[in-house]
Amino acid sequence: MMKTLKLVFACVILFCSIVMISFSTFLLKASADFIFDVKKEPDTYITDVSGETDIKENNSLHTPYDSNLKLTVYNHQEKEYEELTLREYLICAVAGEMPTTFEAEALKAQAIAARTYVMARHSTYSTAHCKTHKEASVCTNSSCCQAYKSPEKMASSWGDKYDKYYSMYADAVDNTDGQIITYNGKPISVFYFSTSNGYTEACEDVFVAKLPYYTCVKSENEENAPRYYNSKKIDIDDFINGLRALSGDNSITKENVRDKVKVLSYTEGGRVDKIQIGNKVVKGTSFRGEFSLNSADFTVKYSEDYVTVETYGWGHGVGMSQNGANQMAKNGSDYFDILYHYYVNTLIQRAK
Asked: What is the pTM of this model?
């Protein structure tokens, strides 16, 4: 009798185990369409986010990815709204952001950054949109959204090389199809810029908001980039008027201007953080904006009738340096290496 009971009990245990395994397999399969497919994980990936961010993060994706997803794009040159597929838009955006001379892996990195930017602003996935054209997901103005090179402009610029170059950008988009940059399972807020001064910046040093995946990192070998160095002459009267506008201090004159301007601190990335102008302290980014400088890494040199402002780098300095990405690609880095270098502790994941 006891042997019979033991046999029955063993059969019951075996049956339950089989049922549990089958049920677990069913759940795993059922949930597969709702998860991201991790491609290459950095050793330093952080799974736990500590602290709050000042910019509200985008929601994670809730619907299947489709490269033929329709976008409403505002063409700021034609002053009209256009309907494009995500793929069509991305090819034009990457072509607008990077020249035909750039390496394939740099173009792929740009394609993923551009895709992440768009998907965070499309109504299917988010309530965000183009900040200046509310009815559009994005616009074609690089000072607002992303740069854009239309097929018509491609044809006029490239001539008989149109097919070759178009295929190059299309390959960058197609070979990374569905891949986006995520942090803690959500698409990141994407920033990138043209050329660094040798370092990138933490987000809070430029845009006030603190995002954990934007820290100061090295961006090497950009010294020969076309926009690495610039020297700008500003008429002394225009310079003084700009200083007065920034500070509200009308006591600044041609005679005392040298004593009225003093750099107080620098960011970790070597750009001007705070600068004393007359009786007011302003951000280096504000000084850059007032005088339309290429970078906040600037030095002012005085002459009698003008000042010369020397700058290093081009752009705000947050996120991926496009020329830095190209240099990394030239040195053998793939697009994973590039994106993980500039977007710290993130993951490249595929939306299914």
From this structure: 0.81
